[in-house]
Amino acid sequence: MARLTTLGALVLTLIGQAALADDLLLDQRAVLLDDSRLPREAALDRLQQVRFAFREKQAQEGDWPLWSRAYGIHGSWDGGLERDGEGLMLGLDRPLGGQWIGGVLAGVSRTRLDADAGHADSDSVHLGLYAATRIYNQLGFKLGALQGWHELEHGERARSWQLFGESSLALDFRDFTLEPFAGLAYVQLDAPSQRERGLRLPGADEESGYLTLGWRLAAPWYVQQRKWVGRASLALRQDLGSDQLASRAWSEEGDALRLQGREFERSTLRLDLSLDHELSERCYLGLTYAGHYAEDARDNALAARLSLKF
């Protein structure tokens, strides 16, 4: 009888460890949805730097304006969940006539998610289109679409796509521009079926929307006839989707378990600080810090940007 009791306790322990692991897989899906903002923000920032306040010099006929953005990011949540990642985005854009500009973006990224229950890694490829225009030099609109392919643990593959847009109103003063803005994004993740430690987590289509409201400030100055531009923005981002993913999983014996991921904050405060330097009329270098802050979460990213006209 004692042996049976011990064996039963061991089985329950193993099932509990498997449930914890699949909870981490649900957290990974939630983080993939949230990290969809990284290529999106790269496109929006690029449009800000070439079409809006104190922008780079416009490309001339025959020019090929290329840009790159490399970043590293670290995030942590109360309870022991941490995320590290890095990525590289490359883009090319051209004037489309009038006040319109459009471009293409491609990139790769890697994310590592760690918790007490284990770890979950993913490698992603991103491809997208973006465009922007200005009306009366004050009212601005940005829009874009992105597709993502994500390779998860054990060779599973997920796919995501998103649509996003932003509107802004430039309030121009002599030495600076103040710009209220509003952004909206819709993201869908097609997550695959996954197996971990004797449990099968079925595939699912997860989706979310994100609303961002904030203010942006930009100001230039010159050092030895070379232009520097400082930018700062403060915004509130609201997650319009579920704050906690849930799913039903099955053991190898056919028993069903109800799993829940962690509860993520739906409202975050976003701070962006950037500095751009005109190395020459055809070369710009920039550095950007982005922070997201919530009651139980902190997220910090640092990115370097280089743009060239060939």
Q: Main traits of this protein?
A:
17 strands; 64% strand; 2 helices; 310 residues; alpha+beta; twelve-stranded antiparallel beta barrel; 15% helix; single chain; four-stranded antiparallel beta sheet
Quick description:
The protein is an alpha+beta fold and 310 residues long.
Helical/strand content category: alpha+beta
Question: In angstroms, what is the radius of gyration?
Answer: 22 Å
Neighbour order of strands in the largest sheet: 1-2-3-4-5-6-8-11-12-15-16-17
Q: How many DSSP-defined strands?
A: 17
Which stretches are poorly predicted, pLDDT < 50 over at least 5 residues? 1-21
Distance between the termini: 79 Å
Q: Compute the average pLDDT.
A: 88
DSSP strand (E) fraction? over 45%
Instruction: Spell the H/E element sequence.
Output: HHEEEEEEEEEEEEEEEEE
Largest sheet: 12 strands, antiparallel, barrel
| Quaternary form | single chain
